[in-house]
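F.,

This is the one I mentioned.
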């Protein structure tokens, strides 16, 4: 599916997503036209889905991140759909993930400080539908947050 040239282009794109195609081409050892064609093909194939800005929410004053694990009331047929729809409406929820096993979903929630988190938890999280159980894990530090892939 991918050859060495594609992999070199993807590594360069991951290293500097804002780089111009010419710069990526030069670092990958191909012509700009080749780089453009191949990157377009990778995007058409869905391998490159988007180029996006990554905003550091801590720099915006959010100092607290909590991972909340939920088990839902599975006697309710719409539990997942209702919960996810409501959770999407909470602005401080930065990630929603579903799982198989004892934990059904995980929400990552950010807050300015513990008082703000308490407010979010009481007024927005506890009011989400169909909660059977919640477990909270507060982030202390991030050891590895790899954005690069082993390509």
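My design for it:
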């Amino acid at each position: 599916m991918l050859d060495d040239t594609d992999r070199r282009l993807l590594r360069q794109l991951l290293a500097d997503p804002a780089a111009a195609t010419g710069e990526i081409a030069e670092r990958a050892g191909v012509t700009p036209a080749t780089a453009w064609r191949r990157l377009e093909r990778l995007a058409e194939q869905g391998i490159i889905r988007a180029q996006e800005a990554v905003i550091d929410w801590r720099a915006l004053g959010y100092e607290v991140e909590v991972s909340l694990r939920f088990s839902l009331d599975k006697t309710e047929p719409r539990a997942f759909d209702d919960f996810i729809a409501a959770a999407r409406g909470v602005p401080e929820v930065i990630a929603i993930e579903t799982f198989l096993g004892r934990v059904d979903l995980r929400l990552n929630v950010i807050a300015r400080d513990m008082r703000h988190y308490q407010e979010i938890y009481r007024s927005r999280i506890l009011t989400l539908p169909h909660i059977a159980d919640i477990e909270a894990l507060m982030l202390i530090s991030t050891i590895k947050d790899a954005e690069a892939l082993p390509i």
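The chain has two domains: 4-44, 57-138.

Talk soon.
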